[in-house]
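Dig into these lines:

——
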Amino acid sequence: QVQLVESGGGLVQPGGSLRLSCAASGFTFSSSTMNWYRQAPGKEREFVAQISYSGHMTYYLDSVKGRFTISRDNAKNTVYLQMNSLKPEDTAVYYCNRGAAWGQGTQVTVSS
């Protein structure tokens, strides 16, 4: 079955960086568009970034453009989200997504 397992979250100060990873299994990863979403307390889940199966096309939420970078390693069945210049408003649970499948999420907290 499809499995998505996120890792890499944590507590970071404003301006800091984190790299999230999502290990995928149970489907043909190299043929799949992959997404990152996030959900902050009391808010709806929102799209953050998308990467095409080849990695050539990427899309971002406007508020993270220039700060976040989505990438993938098809040999490792893993998608990444590099997050730089983090802000308190980036605090959320971050989820990996492919179609109807979701990971369990990883908490990112940006606070001094």
Remarks:
- The first strand starts at residue 3 and ends at 7.
- The two ends are 40 Å apart (CA to CA).
- The CA atoms of residues 88 and 108 lie 10 Å apart.
